[in-house]
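Example 9 (inverse folding). The structure is encoded as follows.
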């Protein structure tokens, strides 16, 4: 399996092998969510890219060994799930 970090345009920022074990689609999605949140700082109203990331991922996908999509989590999901507003995108 692999985890792919990319922009919403599909531009790949980083890709790495991933060996996480999950039993349900929701657990895979939670792993993708945690990975994406690693690029962002938050307060009680907003989230923004951390300064150390010159090009923050906007989407994380998890692919199986055949390249089939297992899970996806995007900045749009962050906004829908948390009601936080994205500020300062790079």
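The amino acid assigned to each position is listed next.
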């Amino acid at each position: 399996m692999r985890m792919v970090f990319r922009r919403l345009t599909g531009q790949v920022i980083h890709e790495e092998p991933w060996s996480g074990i999950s039993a349900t689609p929701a657990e895979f999605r939670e792993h993708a969510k945690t990975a994406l949140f690693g690029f962002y700082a938050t307060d009680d109203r907003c989230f923004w890219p951390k300064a150390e990331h010159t090009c923050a991922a906007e989407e994380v996908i998890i692919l199986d060994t055949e390249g089939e999509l297992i899970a996806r989590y995007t900045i749009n999901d962050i906004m829908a799930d948390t009601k936080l507003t994205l500020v300062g995108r790079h």
